[in-house]
Design goal:
Number of strands: 7
Strand content: 15-25%
Number of domains: 1
Structural class: alpha+beta
Order of helices and strands: HEEHHEEEEE
Shape: globular
CATH topology: endopeptidase fold (from Nostoc punctiforme)
Helix content: 10-25%
Strand order of the largest sheet: 6-5-4-3-7
Radius of gyration: 14 Å
Largest sheet: 5 strands, antiparallel
Length: about 130
C-alpha cells in the first residue's frame, strides 16, 4: 500500500498525469495502468508482465482466478490492495469503465475519476493480492 499512497502523492504533486495514449510512459497513467503498476509491485501482473491490460481484462483475470469477493459483501470485507471495478451497461453488455485500488477504510485511489472515492458495496471487488 505504500506504493499506492506514494503514487497518489505523485499525482497530487503533478508527477503523474492522466493519459490513455501515454499510459505506459513514465509520468503518465490511466486507471487500469495505475492499478496494474500498484498490483505489479505486490506480485500480480494480471497475466501481463510487461504491459498493463485494460480494466476489462483485469476484471476477467480476477474472475477466472477466483480472486473476487462474493457479490454480497460489506465495505469491511474490502482490504487494502483489493481492486474496485466500476461497471456500466453499454449496448446491452456490462463493461468495466473504471478501476481503482482500495486503500482501506472504505476509500480507494485512482486516476481519471478523482483522487479518492468512497467504495460502495455494489461494486465488484477483485482480490488479486490475497
Amino acid at each position: 500500500m505504500r506504493k499506492a499512497v506514494k503514487t497518489y502523492h505523485d499525482m497530487e504533486n503533478g508527477k503523474i498525469h492522466y493519459s490513455q495514449s501515454l499510459r505506459m510512459k513514465k509520468g503518465y497513467a490511466d486507471c487500469s495502468s495505475l492499478a496494474w503498476r500498484i498490483m505489479k509491485a505486490g506480485g500480480c501482473t494480471f497475466g501481463s508482465p510487461n504491459w498493463a491490460p485494460d480494466g476489462g481484462v483485469e476484471y476477467r483475470w480476477c474472475k477466472k482466478k477466483g480472486k473476487m469477493l462474493p457479490k454480497k459483501h460489506s465495505v469491511n470485507d474490502i482490504m487494502p490492495g483489493d481492486v474496485v471495478f466500476w461497471m456500466q451497461k453499454q449496448k446491452g453488455k456490462t463493461k468495466v469503465f473504471h478501476v481503482e485500488v482500495a486503500l482501506g477504510y472504505g476509500i480507494s485511489t485512482g486516476i481519471g475519476a478523482g483522487p479518492w472515492n468512497a467504495i460502495g458495496t455494489g461494486y465488484p471487488i477483485g482480490t488479486p493480492l490475497r
